[in-house]
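Data availability (excerpt). All sequences and predicted token strings are deposited with the supplementary files. A representative entry, dolichyl-diphosphooligosaccharide--protein glycotransferase, is shown inline so that the format can be inspected without opening the archive.
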Amino acid sequence: MAAPETSTAAVPSLYTNNALRNAFGGVLSFFILLLIGVMAFSIRLFSVIKYESVIHEFDPYFNYRVTQFLAKNGIYEFWNWFDDRTWYPLGRVIGGTVYPGLTLTAGTIWWLLNSLNIPLSVETVCVFTAPIFSALASWATFLLTKEVKGTGAGLTAAALLAMVPSYISRSVAGSYDNEAVAIFALIFTFYLYIKTLNTGSLFYATLNSIAYFYMVCSWGGYTFIINLIPMHVLLCIVTGRFSSRLYIAYAPLVVLGTLLAALVPVVGFNAVMTSEHFASFLVFIILHVVAFVYYIKGILSPKMFKVAVTLVVSVGLAVCCAVIAVLIALVASSPTKGWSGRSLSLLDPTYASKYIPIIASVSEHQPPTWPSYFMDINVLAFLVPAGIVACFSPLSDSSSFVVLYIATSVYFSGVMVRLMLVFAPAACITSGIALSQSFDVFTRSIKFQLPGISSNTEVDAAETSSATAEAQNDAVKTEKSEETSKNRPSKKSKKKEKEEKPSTKAKAEKRLIALPLDSSVISLLLLILLGAFYVVHCVWAAAEAYSAPSIVLTSHSHDGLHVFDDFREAYAWLRHNTDVDDKVASWWDYGYQTTAMANRTVIVDNNTWNNTHIATVGTAMSSPEKAAWEIFHSLDVKYVLVVFGGLVGYPSDDINKFLWMVRIGGGVFPHIKEPDYLRDGQYRIDSQATPTMLNCLMYKLSYYRFVETDGKGFDRVRQTEIGKKYFKLTHFEEVFTTHHWMVRIYKLKPPKNRIRGKTKKSKSKTSSASSRAKRSGMGKKNPWH
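Structure token line:
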């Protein structure tokens, strides 16, 4: 009688110890998450500490300008804003062509801070929005990974995401782009989907639809979500994992999420009319067919079930055929088969280079190189395979989703370097799972093999397992007391109870299996060393590689640090020395910055929605000076801006981008042909360059007076002397060149009134000759008509 009393007395103390341990673990996890959020925020402040609080890159300047308009004029004016300073003379409806999530988020933060009498400027809020949401993304990663493999894996994954260079590149202070908030929305939507899948709660399903709506508002990459989740649902159905929880997790997302997505003006009816969304609807139909089959199976006899299945399958095939026929008709009516150009370039990496050069011309749309993987995710590339293996032991609905996520994101990151950003969270999740389980195995092995601990540990483990088993049995007995009083245990149940005891012992023995002590210690030290290397690399990437704003450039040499502030110098000159209504022509890369910083009207910008308009500017840059003047004059252009890096060695200048101007222009205007600008298939600017290249407008505007800098005209980017050194401009005049020659601004010369001068001259000198020419019809045609 003493033994049972001892065991029953040990159960409350066991529960008390477990409760205290869980409470302490929860508090510790909270403080660790808080520190991870602080780390995620602070590691992204190098750009502000080293340089200044300034907006980075090109697209963020448009977002900043839109946020300024929203803060000044309000939400209703924002939805109806027609911007006449872009895409002249077409203009642009801002409210219907932007993803408003980032703008509304920053505008709301600014409004709340000012309501609390915290007078921050709109620019300051925009600069620090990305670091704030990087902390939120780390916490969302913790929640997602915790649902898959527990708290330890969640904390590890959150710490990895807080520092991963791929995400830092798009979320440093000043990187005010859509991805700043979209990555958080992406991860949080996945977490709510997994949470709903694990719990079957309609509350989480509703939150999942709202999170998806926020993702749709924030970034066009929402199509990744609405295709990945249906793929996972289909995988669960095919592998026999259908359940009511799966239905609750998916059906409300498709219905409510699609309705909410259609409310976003830039999406609208595309949520139901484009091919990117058709997979979700098809899986939605399949899910209901499977649910109906399971329902019928539960209420009918086996014979009736076969008849019903035959009927359902026949009707379902007829409905599916009808739906597929309608979809084929809709898709066939579109020249791109219902897919957007970017989506087609993901499915077929060669599509953009063949048919849409404007997409292929963007550097972030190019495939990544192998070193870029090591740069952006570093040692995670070696941990991802181990994390995938860990997801299969055991394989659950949530872990299969992670495997599917990592597989698809790896493919898309290999097609487009920009999508390394989507791959980074998946890599951090799988690497966190691998590190967490590895640390668990190694530390347990060391713990069990230390002298004086192993025997006590085995006894404690056996006592703990037996005590918990007894407690669970007692709980089961109390819950099912009525059933046990009515029904006595059968022989089969007794056999099962006898078989359960050795199985629990076998499981306990499996838990106690450990690696050799020396191997465990060495492996643990190697993992710590690997983590230290990852931290050092991430800090270096945040401080050096990704902190420098593209608008302010720096270089180190033997005489110290050099700062190149030519872009802001040029935009300031335009703002203070040109009329408000003057139009500025440049390549589309600089459109957003010109509009936001110089406040001048541009012909094209980074939105790239009108390929013909961009091709017109590309044609002008590729044409001789006189023809280019006529094109720009027809567009009411007064100034032309070119970026030139030949003096200081800046490689991202317009000369290096020039072939894309030729290709885009030639795609619309056939008289522009790329071979005319190449010498034996090589792009050259030296004495071997073709006459077409040496006489085009881009060459002349870039190299005008360049020989005066060193007497030779040596281009430091192309590492050669230019071919045409001495020439004059007849239709353009130089009005401003920045300190380092990085930005050059030219003004179109006004057209000469040649008709009146020629008429007076002909009347005074050769009136008889002109009359004879008129009678014979040999007079020259006016070139300006």
